[in-house]
Amino acid sequence: MSHPDRAGIEIRSIREDEFAAWVRAVNTGFLLTPTPAPETVAHRRRGTDLARTQAAFDEGRMVGNFRSFTQRLTAVGGAEVRADAITNVGVAPTHRRRGILSRMMAADLAAARERGETVATLIAAEYPIYGRYGFGPAASVARWEIQVPRTGLDPRWSRPEGGGRLDLVDAAEIRAHGPGLHERLRSFRHGVVDRDERWWQQATGQSNPPDKPWKEPFHVLYRSARGEVEGYAAYTAEDTWHENKQPLETATVVDLIAVTPVAERALWQYLCSVDWITRVRTGFRAPDDLLPDFLPDVRAARITTLADWLWIRLLDVPGALASRTYAASGALTLEVTDASGLGGAGRYRLTADGSGAECVRTREAAELTVELGDLASLWTGEVSAARLLALGRVREERAGAAAAADSLFRTERRAWCPDVF
Ligand SMILES: CC(=O)SCCNC(=O)CCNC(=O)[C@H](O)C(C)(C)COP(=O)(O)OP(=O)(O)OC[C@H]1O[C@@H](n2cnc3c(N)ncnc32)[C@H](O)[C@@H]1OP(=O)(O)O
């Protein structure tokens, strides 16, 4: 509960009878239909913990909204960290730029720290919003569009090499196999966030709000030669034909996850082989996705989106640094600055070896000074210290410290967050 500020804006969590007004505020900020249908409100209510909502009130009118929930995020090396996932953020255009978001953010981050969450996460609507609160861009997203006739793939292809098989299945089978598959992905790919029961229900048409009705996709499941489920793709198709009766259909991937490169290759090859499909849109991938290099002519895949995606704020700096693995054994003393003033500044000694890492506060001389948001980008391997040095964003207190940082923080793959939340 917060008291009104001098301008009379009160910020607090909402009551049950205020939920419909809160959804209205969310929809207004996101420029959706202002008054949601009662069924939409009821659907949203089932996925909302009122204690984790915030609203701003001016003379009793709701002028700001905010929500968070606990999420599990995979760190480099596969460990799971608890995250405070932030979503549904908005301030009425009539009340913007008066510090309402800043107040809601400060309250949420303090509560998350209190709960012992290691990081905070969000998908930013616009790039300039969250850096000021200590967040850094920590996983980028890439989308490709594949011109199938230009890929150079064999048009006679009919099944995966190596004994694996593909089957078209229904949503019920995905409901059965998808969660286990995703858990396997989550155990090794950093940047992936957990998908709860509700996520799978919505993805498989079991529980969908009237404002976002389910469009049943096609589902294809890959099993290895040993019969293990190793990947699946969900895709929709647009029915377009050229005037001279040539099919020009576009397949849009809704979700494609695979836990082996063989499964991944088979699924993309399949998508590029379906009769009538001349264009494939890939959905949200990592920038280093294997896809383009599965194609004999890489240029058949054109990047249509390359942008920041998952933003992370380290709440427990030593906890976060100790939770990931490192590319080498070594030690580094970091001076972490926090321009937001919301917590995290300090000097930390990181020591890593093959068995893990530890990180403690220290009084030893710092080797590298880094701002908290940039440390989040280093934490996932999203950026190199050498690049931050060139940009003037880290300072070497000891010559060569940026290179030393890179030998530790370097990751084999880029972070990937396939989900929107
Ligand atoms: C995780 C998510 O849900 S992302 C969705 C975010 N929501 C939206 O984009 C919906 C439309 N926009 C809005 O609702 C609001 O403008 C918000 C939530 C982005 C910002 O809310 P406000 O209450 O205006 O922010 P607040 O006044 O606390 O701003 C603090 C500072 O951030 C800056 N800022 C806020 N939003 C932006 C922006 N979009 N671009 C650039 N700077 C911004 C302000 O100028 C201010 O700077 P200052 O401290 O130097 O004066």
UniProtKB/TrEMBL annotation:
The keyword Transmembrane helix does not apply. It comes from the Bacteria. Residues 9-160 form the N-acetyltransferase domain. The active site is at 130 (proton donor), 421 (proton acceptor). Acetyl-CoA binds at residues 89-91, 97-102. Keywords: Acyltransferase, Transferase. PROSITE patterns: GNAT. Pfam families: Acetyltransf_17 (PF17668), Acetyltransf_9 (PF13527), SCP2_2 (PF13530). Homohexamer; trimer of dimers. Belongs to the acetyltransferase Eis family. This is GNAT family N-acetyltransferase.
